[in-house]
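Can't paste images in this forum, so I'm doing it all in text. The chain is below; anyone willing to post the predicted structure tokens underneath?
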Amino acid sequence: MPLVQESGLSALLIEDNSHERIAIRRSLGKDVQTLIECESAEEAIRHFEVSPSEFDVIIADFKLPGMDGLNLFRTLRQMNCSSPFILLTGNGSEQIAIEAFKIQVAALLVKATQSGYLDLLPVLVTEVIQHHQLKLRNELLELSLKEANERFCQFMEHYQGIFMYPPSR
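Text version of the structure:
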């Protein structure tokens, strides 16, 4: 399944290892039209302070200089960034996984060459983006339904005298 949308994908990659960044860039291929790369959490935060645009996906290593990926996720959420977040880790510990899912990181992927994570990453990116888009659509539908229900209730309150149930004989 290709990653391409009509306007192409935008992604933010936060990875301090240059070899890993190159491998991830190649893995994502040309389906990602805009790929901003940062070497640290602080650099990513500065990027959001200067240009607070949303990305289709954010991919970050867990182990970053100065701040781990989980704290980066929390910081970006406090900055009102709602982009889906994929956390990469070289250490597949249960504690990291539990914490990541507690704070609603979209996905966690272990960076093990024998697992073929670079082949899995483009598929995971597609799934995470699709899930995020469905979640946003559902939120909009729920809001529309709530507003329609409120309008209906107001209508019924205003016209309750017209409708008599059951009809009088």
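The longest strand covers residues 32-38. Helices lie at 18-28, 41-50, 69-78, 94-102, 117-158.
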